[in-house]
């Protein structure tokens, strides 16, 4: 069986509704199942630090 991961983040619930509909559509395909998972929120500064490394983190900290 093919398993499809439907990964989403939703603040207001609209994206969660869409993700549930996508998962239902996956379940309608023979031989497929869906795993619905919500990712936790990430603060913008955390996301930038993760992608720019320590140097970018220091620059942002001083800019604020």
UniProtKB/TrEMBL annotation:
It is an enzyme of class 1 (oxidoreductase). Its EC number is 1.14.13.39. Coiled coil: none annotated. InterPro entries: Flavodoxin/NO_synth, Flavodoxin_CS, Flavoprotein-like_sf. GO terms for molecular function: electron transfer activity; FMN binding; nitric-oxide synthase activity. Gene3D superfamilies: 3.40.50.360. Residues 4-64 form the Flavodoxin-like domain. The keyword Oxidoreductase applies. The keyword Oxidoreductase applies. Keywords: Oxidoreductase. SUPFAM superfamilies: Flavoproteins. This is Flavodoxin/nitric oxide synthase domain protein.
């Amino acid at each position: 069986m093919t398993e499809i991961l439907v990964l989403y983040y939703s603040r207001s619930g609209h994206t969660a509704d869409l993700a549930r509909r996508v998962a239902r559509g996956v379940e309608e395909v023979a031989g497929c199942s869906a795993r619905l998972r919500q990712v936790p929120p990430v603060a913008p500064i955390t996301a930038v630090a993760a992608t720019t490394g320590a140097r970018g983190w220091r620059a942002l900290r001083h800019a604020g």
